[in-house]
Amino acid sequence: MSQAKIIDGNAVAADVRAAVASQITILRAGGAPLPGLAVVLVGADPASQVYVRNKNKRAAEVGINSFEHYLPAETSEAELLGLVERLNLDPQVHGILVQLPLPAQIDAQKILEAIHPAKDVDGFHPFNVGRLVTGGPALVPCTPLGCLLLAKRELGSLSGKRAIVLGRSNIVGKPMAQLLLRESATVTIAHSRTHDLPEECRRADIVVAAVGRPEMVKGDWIKPGALVLDVGINRIPAAEPGKTRLVGDVAFAEAVTVAGAITPVPGGIGPMTIAILLRNVLEACCRLHDLPFAEVL
Length: 297
Ligand SMILES: Nc1nc2c(c(=O)[nH]1)N[C@@H](CN(C=O)c1ccc(C(=O)N[C@@H](CCC(=O)O)C(=O)O)cc1)CN2
Known about the structure:
Blueprint: E1 5-6, H1 9-29, E2 36-42, H2 46-62, E3 65-71, H3 77-89, E4 95-98, H4 108-114, H5 126-134, H6 142-155, E5 162-166, H7 173-182, E6 186-190, H8 197-202, E7 206-209, E8 227-230, E9 234-237, E10 244-247, H9 252-255, E11 261-262, H10 269-288
Parallel strand pairs: 1-11, 2-3, 2-4, 5-6, 5-7, 7-8, 8-11
Antiparallel strand pairs: 9-10
Helix pairs in contact: 1-10, 2-10, 6-7, 6-10
The structure holds ligand LMY7XDAE.
């Protein structure tokens, strides 16, 4: 039985953070301003609290000034829009991130569209989405850009490769498909209505699983030697009563015996998301101040 290469997302994320940090040091030595990231969390979702804490900690480590805004779960849409407007105008803030999901009384799309596109380090604003599709300079969503970076490190050129993206969310599936298309891959977007998903999957050289269904992608869905990028983060009951464990959207133990390379959960795509966020803050800061930005890795 073969064994795929297990991609160490923590190690690659550390390389990205180091590249961001060294670029900030050089820019600062030349008199550039301190890059600033504002992170907004509404409510007390435990997973979101962990992600926001990590974002602020990692930002500080690479030399990004982070501004934390913790708002109560009852915050109104108007109050949040007011904060976003203030952050849009704050010259110390180059990147604004509103942690998702938001409480039900707030229209998330309205908030995302209120963020100034030049400070939209999540890449969710329709201006940046449009630029990604039409090929102009854009801030690109962090998780798909992290996947692309890993794919290019593994495979080199993606030109002509068959890729399948499982899931069509605005945060991962759709931007992922656009990024792969930009690299001249042949891209299929699969979703809940796709016929014979296993067969579609078996044709792919690159599988990106972003459906949010624990271990849905089985080993016999994978083409031998394919690259498997697992974006899923699903908490399921563990063998020990009362405990839980994290699994991806891919049945790892099966897929690892077929794939050429595969990301684990945890320790695969997740850490890349935050590393790429820091890269995006640096890019936003450079664009806003007309400074040179060098691609990381
Ligand atoms: N405004 C945004 N909100 C959300 C985004 C986003 O990109 N922008 N993505 C996710 C959450 N997320 C970042 O915000 C995120 C998810 C997971 C990880 C991560 O490092 N995961 C670890 C496991 C962590 C654990 O033990 O729970 C891993 O996979 O190794 C980082 C960031 C939704 N919201």
